[in-house]
Amino acid sequence: MKELPTPVSIEAISDGYDDGGVDEAGSYAVYITRFKEVGLDTLSQLIQKLKNCGCPVNCIVYDPFLPWAVEVAKKFGLVSAAFFTQNCTVDNIYYHVAKGVIKLPPTQVDEEILLPGLSCTIETSDVPSFVSTPESDILVEMLVNQFSNLQKADWILINSFYELEKEVIDWMANIYPMKTIGPTIPSMYLDKRLPDDKEYGMSLFKPMANECLNWLNRQPISSVLYVSFGSLAKLEAEQMEELAWGLKNSNKNFLWVVRSTEEPKLPKNFLDELASEKGLVVSWCPQLQVLEHKSIGCFLTHCGWNSTLEAISLGVPMVTMPQWSDQPTNTKLVQDVWEMGIKAKQDEKGIVRREVIEECIKLVMEEEKGNVIRGNAKKWKELARNAMDEGGSSDKNIEEFVSKLMTIS
User: Fold this and answer.
1) What are phi and psi of 8, to 5 degrees?
2) What is the 3-state secondary structure (H, E, C) of the chain?
3) How many CB atoms are located within 10 Å of the residue 306 CB?
4) How many CB atoms lie within 10 A of CB 40?
5) Residue 114's pLDDT is what?
6) What Å distances lie between residue 377 and 223, 285, 308, 314, 381, CA to CA?
């Protein structure tokens, strides 16, 4: 990150495992405990160091997964801002888990849940999913602990925009000083007010940009299905096989991101038999550039929040195959609230079969219902752009946040 061409200076604090993070710790429970101990100390040292260098800190923006950061802010008399990177609906669910109203993972199957601030009922299959294991229990505890001392934060910032989640934001704002500041994607894909803001500036993997874009340039408008499950999701070999043949049987041109660690799960001879003009499989791609491309007609996604928000911002309809965590909730919103996509449903074994995948792709890209979905996708794209443009809801919230900080600096 220090090599990025940016005027922002980058410093690090320690998690107590500088040589290997969670893997070095051996478990999340040990890691989180140690991170708090060492993080409190090294963050305090950093704030003192910056003060001594004539560059004093006046605000700590922190991820509420690390709730101890607000304690450091209070110790130094600094303003604190919790930045939630998931949407407000998911945060609302975690809030109610913290209050003991609902349980994760849910014990009932397809029980209807009605939570204040949500515009629709949700079922247990729609809430964030975690398999009940000691490691998952620690993750759920970390998610719930976001609210353990949130009342101490001066600001709550959300990576969403008001028009997308009005009811739940209004309800949560009665409890916490919540402000939406999203979508947090580069300006040139939204309001275009910052001409140099074209990319995030870093990537976990090396994108095959030229291969992807050159191939897309040869495809007709809105003809390509883009398929990606992000940087973390791991599909079972059986699911990879069903997905591969579902894509092939759909008879659509497709660009499929298969990380190198996942490639051995592809069906035997699948890549050899794939006609180059019909499909392209790459290890990684520049997702924003791909989603913006005129040849893209649909996004088959795991529905992680970053990918979902990018699809919303660029007006791309979705077929969703959620895997875990917040993805089932995001899928519920995409299909039933924002109505800009459709969920490919699993069978009793938890596998989405090739016939279902093929049917969902054709529904979005060919059928009458697909016209409605595509129309809604265009609507949300416009609203996302308006939110970040001058005078928009997120723009005003960012201006208010910055102006308040300027008065105390």
Assistant:
1) -80, 125
2) CCCCCCCCCCCCCCCCCCCCHHHHHCCHHHHHHHHHHHHHHHHHHHHHHHHHCCCCCCEEEECCCCCCHHHHHHHCCCEEEEEECCCHHHHHHHHHHHCCCCCCCCCCCCCEECCCCCCCCEEHHHCCECCCCHHHHHHHHHHHHHHCCHHHCCEEEECCCHHHCHHHHHHHHCCCCEEECCCCCCHHHCCCCCCCCCCCCCCCCCCCHHHHHHHHHCCCCCCEEEEECCCCCCCCHHHHHHHHHHHHHHCCEEEEECCCCCHHHCCCCHHHHCCCCCEEEECCCCHHHHHHCCCEEEEEECCCHHHHHHHHHHCCCEEECCCCECHHHHHHHHHHHCCCEEECCCCCCCCCCHHHHHHHHHHHHCCHHHHHHHHHHHHHHHHHHHHHCCCCHHHHHHHHHHHHHHHHC
3) 17
4) 17
5) 85
6) 16, 22, 11, 8, 6
What are the Cα distances from residue 303, in Å, to 86, 128, 332, 392, 409? 12, 12, 10, 26, 39
Two structure tokens written together for 285: 């791609």
Q: Is the pTM of this model over 0.85?
A: yes
Cβ pair 80, 68 in contact under 8 A: no
10-residue block means of pLDDT along the chain (409 residues)?
76 94 90 95 98 95 96 97 96 92 76 83 87 78 92 97 97 95 96 89 83 96 96 92 95 96 92 83 96 98 97 98 94 97 96 98 96 98 98 98 89
| Separation CA 278–CA 275 (nearest Å) | 5
pLDDT recorded at residue 260: 92
